[in-house]
Write a structure and sequence with these properties.
The complex is a heterodimer. Chain A is mainly α. Chain A has one domain: Helix Hairpins (Orthogonal Bundle), CATH 1.10.287. Chain A has 3 helices and no strands. The longest helix of chain A has 31 residues. Chain A starts with a helix and ends in a 5-residue tail after the last helix. The longest helix of chain B is centred in the first third of the chain and has 30 residues. Helices cover 64% and strands 0% of the residues of chain B. Chain B has one domain. The chains are: A mainly alpha, B mainly alpha. The interface between A and B is large, with 51 and 56 residues.
């Protein structure tokens, strides 16, 4: 049992490090561009990685109170991606 | 006891699978050269990466959080439903900004909707009903 718990803790640390690395790498893509679509895509990936971080925090602390947080981040991330794309496409968000 | 052992091992494996797919997707986002191929890579992060993390969270809370929780399925289904829509919008932005090659012409129309420019002899816009 302690072997399993140790394995899970190591996996948890590895996934925290990997998701933070992924966040930093998509931030690099956000900075270097080169196009508007790439920047929107990088922001979308950062939102997904933020959801992953919140879920991992919930697993690490053993609580369930973070699900609402990740659900709201998911909804707002989708809406903001669509808003960016529509602003580029139409020059306006709500016509 | 043995069930808890199996559940914890499943949690650890799901975490590792999710982190591998997150890393692969973001490396693809950094390394690919074209805007449209870059659009392809981070879908792995959105589906299998976060999906495996949420599966790990479900199994973990079924052991330690007191029963199965359904909220993760809600997040997962929301992400799976909205990922193609935002990908479609970003692809349209790439086409609109001429960040990719021009796709072959559509079958039924003369051009794609994002390439279509308004004609010169359009009627005057109605400024009163703005």
């Amino acid at each position: 049992m302690s072997f399993a718990l140790g394995f899970m803790n190591i996996a948890l640390v590895i996934s925290f490090v990997v998701v933070i690395l992924a966040q930093i790498m998509s931030m690099i893509r956000l900075v270097i561009g080169p196009g508007t679509g790439d920047r929107i895509l990088a922001l979308d990936t950062m939102v997904v990685n933020a959801i992953a971080l919140v879920v991992l925090l919930g697993v690490a602390q053993g609580t369930r109170i973070y699900f609402e947080v990740s659900l709201i981040i998911a909804m707002l991330g989708f809406v903001s991606t669509v808003a960016y794309a529509r602003f580029v496409l139409r020059g306006d968000i709500i016509e | 006891m043995i069930l808890e052992f199996i559940a914890i091992i499943i949690v650890a494996l799901c975490l590792l699978i999710g982190s591998i797919f997150s890393l692969v997707g973001v490396i693809g986002l950094l390394k690919f050269e074209d805007s449209m191929t870059r659009l392809h890579a981070p879908t792995k992060v959105g589906t299998i990466g976060v999906g495996a993390f949420l599966l790990a969270s479900m199994v973990y809370s079924s052991v330690y959080g007191g029963g199965w929780s359904i909220q993760e399925l809600l997040i997962m289904s929301f992400l799976f439903v909205t990922a193609p829509i935002s990908a479609n919008f970003i692809a349209k932005v790439n086409m609109h900004k001429r960040a990719c090659e021009t796709p072959p012409p559509p079958v039924n129309d003369e051009t794609w909707a994002t390439y279509k420019v308004p004609e010169d002899n359009l009627p005057e816009p109605d400024t009163k009903s703005a």
